[in-house]
Amino acid sequence: MTSGRTTAAQTAFPPRNAPGGLKVLLGVLVAVGIVAFIAGLLGGDRLRAWQIFFVNFLFWSGLAQGGVVMAAVYRITNARWGDHFRRIGEGMVAFLPVSFVLYLVLVIAGQEIFPWLREPVHGKEAWLSAPFLFGRDGAVFLVLMWLSGTYVYYSIRPDLGQAPSGTGGAPASGLVHRLMKHWRGWETESLESGRRLARLTPALLIAFAVLYSLIGFDLVMPLDPHWFSTLFGWLYFLHAFFAGLVMVMTLAILSRPWFGTAGAFTEGQWHDMGKFVFGFCLLSGGFFWSQYLVIWYGNLPEESSFLMKRFYTQPWEPLMWVYIILAYLFPLAVFLSRRVKEIPAALLVMGVLILGALFIERFIAVVPFLWQGATIPFGLVELVVTAGFAALFVLSWIFFAERVTLVPKPEKRAERGE
């Protein structure tokens, strides 16, 4: 992926406002999603309302954190094939404070979701106690939000002083002025940021892998307190990263008309991003298959109940196969073509399909534990609530993109002797 291709000139893409109609549409979707969620709670089907809230919280929170981590991975590998992709991932940090507020809402609703709150599990009372579990997971989200925010601050700070005022965006906002305090010039700021990021980047990557595995073990696995898996936490954080990576690709394509960045991307950069997605499609598919290998060669039938219910019982079996085909098999076949990886429209279609598949993965990881009906509980309320979450995520990202150039100037990285 580090093929040596150079990027276009970095100074021609200052921050600008997204189309007003787009933001109005997204705001309406958020409002309608909130109304649908409240209507679901008041309409007597509280479980369906809370479980779709929980699924969306897990999916969009993991995706946002995965996008920031994707930017950190790009940086630590010293990649040069598309800094704009890195900046798009960094913009997802704007959703993390929103995610923490949603987590607090989830804590209030814990009685509706987590069965171990109603029926304590013998031998796990200390670990599965509400104050301890919700407290440690809240601390996890706060630590990751702080690490991510600090990382993004030092990454964007050199470019903030370069953005001209009055460009139609919001570079002169009070927030940007505070972030630019004591700005000392691009070259000095770039070198200082490079020194700090040399320490922050590996810390963020290690924290994400360890702490997001804990989130998978804490928030999803206890939905069946008697089931456990040695690989579930690792697969959970890998899927979050995979979703963040695919969303970076998707937003890079969608944002071209929104922010006038079409001229910033070359055909070679789309090809490199397509290879990046293809590689993690292979990796996450391998991790998914590893569950079977561990159960088989370890002779661990107690770990098989999760997969048995989803592969051999209705209504979950068809949905499981839709997920596998759209997340792994279909992308593997399509991405073998070099030409597909060079066409943004084709990458957009693949990105939407993979994101839909990864949402299904979160859905079938959670809902079969809670829902006892004969049909899949996904109707109008679930669709509208999901659309509201998606719109809230995009609005958060737009808030960032209107204030920070999406096409950064190449950095001076003192720690690498550049």
How do you describe this structure in short?
The protein has helices at 20-42, 46-76, 83-90, 96-108, 110-113, 115-118, 130-160, 174-179, 186-220, 232-259, 267-298, 305-312, 316-334, 344-370, 380-401.
List keywords for this structure.
disordered N terminus; 418 residues; disordered C terminus; mainly alpha; 70% helix
Descriptive overview:
With 418 residues, this protein is mainly α. It is built from 15 helices and no strands. The chain has helices spanning 20-42, 46-76, 83-90, 96-108, 110-113, 115-118, 130-160, 174-179, 186-220, 232-259, 267-298, 305-312, 316-334, 344-370, 380-401. It is globular, with a radius of gyration of 22 Å. The two termini are 20 Å apart. Mean pLDDT is 86; it is low at 1-11, 165-172 and 414-418.
What portion of residues belong to β-strands? under 5%
- The run of helices and strands is HHHHHHHHHHHHHHH
The helix count comes to: 15
Question: Which regions have little confidence, pLDDT < 50, spanning 5+ residues?
Answer: 1-11, 165-172, 414-418
Mean pLDDT rating: 86
Largest sheet: none
Q: Distance N terminus to C terminus? A: 20 Å
Number of strands: 0
How much is the radius of gyration in Å? 22 Å
Q: What structural category characterises the helix and strand content?
A: mainly alpha
What form results from the Cα inertia axes? globular
The percentage helix is: 55-70%
